[in-house]
């Protein structure tokens, strides 16, 4: 995890159809915490990926679940160029602030 300390933004890529999405996120966060609590202070985005493979009900469930964290939550599919552009724009905005 040493290389992650050098990043300015953390992007948690979680498959939008993962039935255990919250657990997946919490597992990674726990690993960060055990390594260095500094990682928990970095700006982060939760990115629900592969939306083209998930049904809307699951996407909505996971969006609702993660929005409760207070973190920025986005969805993305490589087959939806506008979603990729939205992720890029959000990353650029965060970088401008930091």
Task: Describe the protein.
There is one protein chain. By secondary structure, the chain is α/β, with parallel strands linked by helices. Helices cover 45% and strands 16% of the residues. It contains three helices and three strands. The protein has a three-stranded parallel beta sheet with strand order 1-2-3, with helices on both faces. Helix 2 (56-67) links the parallel strand 2 (44-49) and strand 3 (72-75). The two termini are 21 Å apart. The model has no long low-confidence stretch (mean pLDDT 94).
Features:
98 residues, alpha/beta, three-stranded parallel sheet
Short recap of the structure:
This protein is of the alpha/beta class and 98 residues long. It has helices at residues 21-35, 56-67, 81-97, and strands at 10-15, 44-49, 72-75.
Based on CA inertia axes, which overall geometry fits?
globular
Termini, distance in Å? 21 Å
Structural class category: alpha/beta
The biggest sheet, with number of strands, parallel, antiparallel or mixed sense and barrel status, is: 3 strands, parallel
Give the H and E element order. Answer: EHEHEH
| Strand residue content | 15-25%
Uncertain stretches: none
Mean pLDDT comes to 94
* Proportion in helices: 40-55%
Number of strands: 3
Radius of gyration: 14 Å
Enumerate how many helices there are, as a single number: 3
The largest sheet has its strands arranged as 1-2-3
């Amino acid at each position: 995890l040493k290389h992650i300390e050098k990043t300015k933004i953390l992007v948690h890529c979680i498959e939008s159809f993962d039935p255990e999405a919250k657990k997946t996120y919490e597992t990674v966060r726990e690993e960060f915490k055990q390594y260095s609590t500094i990682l928990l202070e970095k700006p982060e985005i939760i990115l629900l990926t592969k939306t083209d493979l998930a049904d809307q009900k699951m996407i909505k469930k996971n969006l609702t679940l993660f929005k409760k964290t207070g973190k920025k939550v986005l969805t993305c599919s490589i087959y939806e160029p506008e979603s990729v552009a939205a992720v890029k724009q959000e990353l650029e905005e965060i970088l401008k602030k930091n």
